[in-house]
Every structure is written in structure tokens, then in C-alpha cells.
Amino acid sequence: MNKPIKSMLWFCFLLIASIQTFAQNSSSHAFSIKECVDYAHKNNVQVRNALLNVQVQNQTNRDITAAALPTVTGTISGNDYLTIPTSLLPGEIFGQPAGTYIPVQFGTKYNANAGINLQQLLFDGQVFIGLKARSTSIEFQNKNVEVTEEAIKANIYKIYYQLVASKTQIGIYDANLDRLNKLLHDTKVLYQNGFAEKLDIDKISVQVSNIETEKLKALNSISVGYLGLKTLIGMPVKDTLVLTDQLTEDKIKQGINQDSAFTYDSRKDYQYLNLAKKLNEFNIRRYQLSYLPTIALTGAYTKNAQRNQFNFFGKGDWFTTSFIGLNVSIPIFDGFSKDAKLKKSRIELKQTENQIENLRNSIDNEVETARMNFSASITTLEYQKKNMELAENVFKQTTKKFELGTGSNTEITAAQTDLRTAQANYINALYGAIVAKVDFYKAVGKL
């Protein structure tokens, strides 16, 4: 076996091995729109991080709760006094002149202490408010997850149904190719019998080539769209994705005449801002209560041993000390720190209220705009469909006239151009209707 053949066989072997490895590492998914949304809920990075924020808030709440629970600490200490501390006793005790002192060392070389300390917070206004705000904080983070999911869901719907609708676009290209290939065949027959010119064949061949090029571009755009959808839902690019839902004009039109009445509370972003307002109010209450005293119960139980030799577990006494106490901390002056925090929190509440007011105006505008766009897109879709059907009939009649010898190739070219324009307008109207419907449902909070 010569060297070139060996090289070719080796290349084929590597190619087959690469294909098998790729197939083993990839998966195939056949998804409806709901399955795409569910997959994104588990795999989209933004959603996953929003869900992690909920877990972070849970741990923060545990930390807040800990402030209201007893704190118990154990202590063990030991000292080796290399030099025993010296104290001064008045000299007159020992008959010395008044005003003189005698240095005396008290204590033992070794000292050990073991004990347990307890502290229980009885009242702290800031901790009290923190406990009340726990459920609202969790609800706030959960609502953030919903807002994130809704934004991603809207994009999934748009891309998914645009890709589904692209099947219609490819079908139109195939139908055009079938018509033109038949016309090309018939023109060749006419040319062979002397009823057409070579120029007629060339013009039709150019049209066939143009449509094949447009179809190739459309297929490439669809492939890019699939990559975008995979990235959006968090699917590995190497996996295969098949869309199982179907899209019809009747399905797009569903909901156009529905009652679009809504309340602001049906919007997740509005709910989110209202929860933010509630947290602002908790913050104000927190700083208001910070002016009140804090009260805590304390207690301790300790054992102390003193030895001249390092032998704490032999003979010798351990002396017990125990106490309970009540600590009251009264804020008097903090350099106006609490006042600044309180005023800042009130300003932040006002900012949130302004955002809510602005969101109401934005929602009103969004709903009206989406409703008008949805209605207009349906009307445009119906008009463009009729226009496309009319262009198809014109092309058919022009083709018949040409085959009967009463029409010209110029008329066919013009009819084909009009048909392709009408088809492009129809596809654009179809895409526009899909996007308008998604925007409408999102605007009224029913996506």
C-alpha cells in the first residue's frame, strides 16, 4: 500500500473517531416552548444567580435570627506568673511611718480559669425590625427571580416562534424553486422547438440561482438563531435542539380580541418595586427604634484554681464564681449618625415611590402601544398574505401566457420580482406579529 493511500485511510480514521467522540459528548433535545422555558429556569446563568440570591438571603435571615437567640461561650485560660504581681500596703499597718508603703506579692505562680458565659438579648429595636422584615426580604428575592425569568421568557418566545416561522420561509423558497425549475424545463423545451430564445433560459437560470442563494442565507440565519436560543436557555452549543411546537396564523391571532383589562399588580416588575418600598419602610422603622435603649440579660459561671505547682487536676480547690446581670444600653449622643441614617432612608423611600409612579406611566404607555402594535400586525399579516396570494396568481397567469406564446420573459421576470417582494413582506409581517403578540402579553402581565 503506497504512502498517499495510507495517509488518506489514517485521515478517515481520525475523522470517524472525532465524529463518534462529538456524538458521545452531545445530547439531542426535542423541546416545546414550555420545555424551553423550563430548561432555561434550570440552566440560564441569570436565573441561576437570581436563585442563589434567594439562598444568600436565607442565610442573611439566619444571621438576623441569631441576634435574637442566646449566645453561649466557653472560656479556658491559664497563666504562669514568671513574676508574681506586687501590691503596696500602707506602712502604718506594720508600724512604719504614715505615708510609706511596703511591697508585698500576693497570689500563686500558676492560675487557671474555666467558665461559661451566657448573653440573651431582651430588646433591640433594630433586631426586632430585622426579624419582622425576614419574610419580605425572601419575597423580594423570589420576585427578582420571577422578573428575571419573565425577561428571559419573552426573548425565548420571540426566538423560538421566529425559528418555527422560518419553516414557512424555507417552504416559500422551495415552492419558488419548484415553479422556476418547471418554468426552466418548459422554456428549454420551447427553445428546442424554436419558440424561445437562449436569453429566456439564461434569465430564468439567474432567478433560480438567486433564490438558491437567498435560501442558503436564510438557512444560515436559522442556524445562527438556533445557536442564540441555545445560549439563551443555557444549553451546550454542541447539543442538538429540535423545536416541536407548530405556529399558524390562527394561533398568532388568538388573544387579539381578548379583554386586555389589567391591574398594575399583574406586572411582576410592579410587584418587585412595591416589595422594595416595603423594605424601605422597614428600614425607616429600624432607625426610628435605634433611639430606644437595648436590654440584655447576662450570666456567667466560672471555676478558678491557684497553685504554686503546675498540678490543676490533683489535690486542691477550684473556687466558683457565678452571677446574672441585666445590661441596659441607653443611646445619648452619636454625632447625629442615627439622624443621618433615618433621613437617608426616608429619601430612599421617596426615590422608590417615584420609581413606582414612573413605572405606572410606563406600563400605561407600554400596554397601549403593545395593543395597537398587536392589532396592526395582525391586520398587516392578513393584508400581506392576500397580497402574496395575488402575486402568486399573477405569476401563474403570466407563466401560462408565456407558455402559450402570448407573453414575454420580461413579464415573467417582473411577476417573479413582485412575488418575491410580496413573500418577503409576508415573512416580515409574520415575524412582526409574533413579536407584537409576545410584547402584548408581557405588557398586560399574562406572558
What does the model show?
The protein is α+β, with helices and mostly antiparallel strands. It folds into 2 domains: 28-69 and 124-292 and 336-443, Outer membrane efflux proteins (OEP) (Up-down Bundle), CATH 1.20.1600.10; 88-122 and 296-330, no CATH class. 65% of the residues lie in helices and 15% in strands. It has 10 helices and 8 strands. The strands form 3 sheets. Strands 2-5-7-8 form a 4-stranded antiparallel beta sheet. The protein has a two-stranded parallel sheet with strand order 1-6. The longest helix has 68 residues, at 337-404. The radius of gyration is 41 Å and the shape is elongated. Residues 1-5 have low confidence and may be disordered.
The count of domains is 2
CATH topology of the largest domain: Outer membrane efflux proteins (OEP)
**N-to-C SSE string, H for helix and E for strand:** HEHHEEEEHHHEHHEEHH
Strand content: 5-15%
- If you average the pLDDT, what whole number results? 88
Mind telling me the CATH class of the largest domain? Mainly Alpha
Record the strand order, biggest sheet. Answer: 2-5-7-8
Secondary structure tally: strands: 8
The SS-based structural class is alpha+beta
Distance between the termini: 66 Å
| Fourth CATH level, the homologous superfamily of the largest domain | Outer membrane efflux proteins (OEP)
CATH architecture descriptor text of the largest domain: Up-down Bundle
Shape: elongated
Q: Strand count, sense and closure of the main sheet?
A: 4 strands, antiparallel
List low-confidence stretches.
1-5
Indicate the radius of gyration in whole angstroms.
Answer: 41 Å
Number of discrete helical segments: 10
Instruction: State the share of residues found in helices, binned by percent.
Output: 55-70%
